[in-house]
Amino acid sequence: MSYETSEKKYDPLKVFIGNLSYQATDDDIMNFFKEKADVDAKSVRILHDRETNRSRGYGFAEFETAEQSSAVQALNGMDFMGRQIKITPAEQRDATKKPFNKRPFDNNSRRSSY
User: Most buried of 5, 26, 44, 79, CB within 10 angstroms?
Assistant: First the structure.
């Protein structure tokens, strides 16, 4: 089940969470949703930089029902850990696109070594 807005498809059970404090954890977000919207998230995932393991300042949450997702979206713009949190519907991933695979250069690379 999904819905479309201006040619983009959105998952009604997932939300994008942006403008997060770099100190925020998955548990902090789950507790925020429970406290402010009385909603238990099915899952929360903050994305981290692969090399430094530092938070990238955004993540995603998934819910059991569209009503729970809508209740959490109503928290958009509220203060969370000193920052104005951004909560919007998450765009569906295009299953035909392959994820970017960052590989180190090897001897067969066109780029010369340093």
Answer: 44
